[in-house]
Amino acid sequence: MDRDRRPRLAVWKFASCDGCQLSLLDCEDELLTLAGAVEIANFPEASSAVLEGPYDLSLVEGSITTAHDAERILKVRQQSRHLVTIGACATSGGIQALRNFADVNDFVAAVYASPHYISTLATSTPISAHVTVDYELHGCPINKEQLIELISAFLAGRKPAIAAHSVCIECKQRGTVCVMVQGQPCLGPVTHAGCGAICPAYRRGCYGCYGPMETPNMAALGREWRTLGASPRDIRRALQTFNAAAEPFRKESEAHAD
Amino acid sequence: MPTKTINVDYLARVEGEGALDIEITGDAVTSAQLRIFEPPRFFEAFLRGRGYAETPDIVARICGICPIAYQMSVVHAIEDAFGTKVDGQLRALRRLIYCGEWIESHALHVVMLHAPDFLGLPDAIRMARDHGDLVRSALALKKAGNDIMRLLGGREIHPVNVKPGGFHRVPSRAELQTLVERLENARNIATDLVRWVATFPFPDLERDYEFVALRHENEYPLNEGRLVSSCDIDIDIADYESEFEERHVPHSTALHSLLKRRGAYLVGPLARYALNFDRLPSTVQALAEEVGLDRICRNPFKSIVVRAIEILFACEEALRIITAYEPPAEAAVPLVPRAGTGFGCTEAPRGICWHRYEFAEDGTIARARIVPPTSQNQPSIEADLAVVAGSLLDQPDEVIRARCEQTIRNYDPCISCSTHFLKLTVHRS
Question: Predicted ipTM?
Answer without folding.
Answer: 0.95
